[in-house]
Hints:
Elements: H1 17-22, H2 26-55, H3 58-79, H4 82-85, H5 88-111, H6 116-128, H7 131-144, H8 148-203, H9 216-233, H10 235-264, H11 270-290, H12 295-300, H13 302-308, H14 311-316, H15 326-339, H16 343-353, H17 359-387, H18 390-410, H19 414-426
Helix pairs in contact: 2-3, 2-5, 2-6, 2-8, 3-6, 3-7, 3-17, 5-6, 5-7, 5-8, 7-17, 8-11, 8-16, 10-11, 10-16, 10-17, 10-18, 11-15, 13-18, 17-18
Amino acid sequence: MGGPRTNSHAPAGMPSYADVLRTRGFVPAFLALSISTWGDYIARIAVALVVRERTGSDLAMAATFTASLLPSILGRSLLSPLADRIPYKHVLVGSDLVRGIFVLAILAAVAQDSRVWLLLVLLFALELFGGPAGASVQILLTDLFEDRRAFLRARGLFSLAEQVNQAIGLAVGGIIVTALSAHGALLVDLGTFLVSAALFAVAVKARPVSGIPTPGIVGFFRDIADGARYLARHRVLLSLLTLSLFAMWGIVAPEAVAIPYVLGNGLPQWLGGVLMAAPVSGAVAGLVMVGRWQPEAASSRMIAMALLMPVPLIVSALVPPSTGWLPVVWLLWFLSGVLQAFVLPLQATFALVVEPDMRGRVIGLAGAASMTAAALGFLLAGWLSESLTPRVAVAGCAALSLAGVALLAATWPARSLDDAVDVAFNGELNEGDR
């Protein structure tokens, strides 16, 4: 065991959110990403409604949402290397324009009463080409903020937006589809992608990619393999990714079973939405709190927060499932959401630690792995809910999450992570670490 660490650098003060918002190019990029996210949700809801109307099948409608999730995983893993080969401005603009083309194709298919399978294929393609944008935005942020503490603040704002945009996209998407019909909603959807593309085109500078990608189609897939090997051999990055995967099982469980929880216990259906909002609300509060911390402090508290995050969910299984006790369950799930905010320093550190010429493919692969873990967590929670009870399902997923994080904590590379944070946020190692 080494002695106490000393930092030769006095930590710089954390920039304010006003400083982040004043950074040239940030606000347009922030708005563009939010608008395109709303477009994604509008497209999913509109196509799902058309499928439901034509088939009368809830299963077919559920398959529509599945068709919108799977390509996100594939798009992140297979297409994110584009961000290492093409300037991110072109990737961001091109991604929105390509998705706009697929919205036009969906509009034509709806107008011609095309078969359901064609609608699902077009929705699949639309979501697939959104994959490269996620990695490109991360690279854009690292370029916009040479002050890495400002980057952490900016990443916090984007994380908050992800939570809020999910709620806005679902709510606004449902309202638009109801008010304008699926056809009108798809026209609005087309407009969101065009506006987003225009914002990226005007506000983002085209910067050359870092490194020299391997040429050709074979080289493209070789780059993906190189990214996977790089990730597997990097102890800090692999530990951060593994932590996010274990945590995901607990994070998604409440959302997966909130509605069955209230319906299975004879509670009003509307309470399902209220309960589902608890961890999301907690995550927003947690992001505001953690966003104020210095990166060194946030990094050192990461594993502790991850260990504590599943505990309130496990405790909630002991609470009687009745209307009178539901506020207690809500508060426990809210607390779990607050503790989920360790994901902010995790993602920010991950993005900065990756070598610049590898960021697109490595961030894409990590994102695909996290989405896969989330999908498996939803399936596990649903299966446990049907086999046992919803509250046992939440506790079971949380217990598995806790066990995985505890195993990882036993070999957590705390010193290596501290060094990585020093390099990422201070630009060099401490003298004692050379």
